[in-house]
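Let's do one together. I've listed all components of the complex below, 712 residues spread over two lines.
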Amino acid sequence: MMGRLIGYELKKSVWTRFFLAVFCLALAANFLLQCGIESYVSYSRIWEQDDPAVQAENPKQSFWEFYRYDRTVTHDLRAQYSFVAGLSPEEEQAALAALEEKYGTGVIEDPNTGISAEGIFDEPGYFGAYTDFTYLSARANLLGWNAEIDAARENVLRAAEALKKQAESDGDAYNIRRNDAVLQLYAAPRPKVTTFLRFAGKNFFGAPTMLFVFLLILVTATVSVAGEHDRQTWLLLHTARNGKGKTLLAKYISGWITAAALTAIFQLDALLALIFQGGGLYADQPAAALHELQLCPFPIKIWQYFLLSTAMQTFAAAVLSTILTTVSACSKTGVIAYMAGALILIGCLLLFYFPPRSEWLTGPLALAEPSRYLSGYYTCDFFGFPVLWAVIDAILWTLLSAGLMLFAQKWYHRERRAI
Amino acid sequence: MELTVERITKEYRSLKALDDVSFTLTEGIHGLLGPNGAGKTTLVNIIVGILRPTSGRVLWNGKDIASLDWRYRNILGFQPQTPSLYKSFRADEFLRYMAAVKGVRLTGKALDHRVDEVLETVNLRAEAKKRIGAFSGGMRQRLGIAQALLNNPKLLILDEPTAGLDPQERVRLRNVIATVAMNKIVIWTTHIVSDIEYIARDILLLGKGNFLACDTPQALIAGMKDKVFARSVQPQEVPIWQEKALVGNVLRRENDVLLRIIGDECPGGTPIQPDLEDVYLYHFREASGGGEQ
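Okay, and this is what the predicted structure of the assembly comes out as:
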């Protein structure tokens, strides 16, 4: 029975021309923004400002050609880096000895010192397919990136040691426990980066994806209950056996399903745009390879980070859906619900883009930005124990959502004093 | 099977919408007749349990409906006044949804059969796959009745079901109600006398929150004996009569005008056979715009 109610509620909220039109537009906009439409626009602008002679020599690339070229470059770079990372220590040692003898000692540390050396850009190089400069540059980059990650980790360990000593002398139980946890979490060396990560940082962190999801939730959740008032169908629901309690619960559940489905669809859309733009997902690389996650306390891979992000974003979307459905249940008309819902969403977005100093005041949408929680070991002093802020926020918002649902059930199903 | 409305009063700040209304209904069709603003919808909303009375209570078989909660809603079929329904749903889909909301314990073919049955009852089976958005007002009203019948209710309440319908649709709807009314208490609110004249077992006349009369149509009509008159007047006298008496009808003839006068007396008038419309006009003279008697 409940399943049928949820199914019909989904149809009521999603299967409308208005929603489908907004959904398609948002999906297309998300794809274009994710695949970096602005880089194509700036390329076009620069090309149009060029001399006609230059333009004639280099005809303007179409949208598809522009990104096909990007994908080819990324593919070549990935192959090159994977080849370098896949060499055995013996092969690497032999190559370095030969190249050092040919171009001098400094070229191993910094390939740029050998730019003027004869043969460094010639094909075939030591490894045949790649020039010696390509090999040396890729190797230096990989070493550099991994050294950067290791240095970041060692910094954290040093700081944790120092802070723990300080906490011990102060008798600060929370900081002793917290720094113990940090030392434990960062004890194991981070997995090595083995390839070139292109565009990933921008796509994973600077995304407007969730903004589209939030707007679509505003469209569906705000009218889910208030729309019944507009149509006068609430009278049918309130006088039916399951009309009290179950129908409102079905509306909340259908809101959560919509929120989850929208998050999944839009994240998939963003992934497709990433592949379209650069061709690579780098799913098996350590998350610490992304600059924003160098201090991530957990040695997770990018695909794990992506799943974790999607789960947290789904949760944030579901919380927003709960808040807006409650607003809808307390509104007399769809217009009032829209206006109140839009104000609440604006408030949440302000808290999202301009986070307050106190983590306790963080809005529900902060959960949609996992780098906020995973770019370091952010904990709350919970009766002397360090508890991750992500956990605290999730518990708080779950409790608040449950409270809102109980309130809405009472309010929506009350006997009216006037109609 | 008995519905009792016990001393219901409903006040909205300074306005008294219902004033100490009491009645008991048993099986059959009951017309709740009154002009716009008489308090019919307020009374209906209290009976269906969505509006709280200021005082008094509603009993179903002697038990307060508030304590019966879902058990009361389980035996209730309600068609509110002109709901818009869900325009994107097909008629059969809407009924399946309402079956789920009403907790009708049928699935698969049994549910399909029930949906077909109620669509057949309201003569909408051929339109089962049409979107509600494409329905006329009359079709929507009939679909509204279909949803009210889904759970085979013992108490069926229809709030102005003929509002906005053309005469043909009204007759069709009336026949539908007469067909489904067996073994049910049916409350039909309206301000159109002909809707219930021939099918209602009794009629409750509600005016300004008070019951003015409650009886069978025949008894109400009998009570109007010697209160309806035919009076022949000259055309120029018509406005004068309309000013000073309640004129139920104006029939222009070749040499004069025949007025149907409703009132306790009519000098020069001949008593004629009253009908239910006369009862309505007699009781609601102010709303009808009738003159002083």
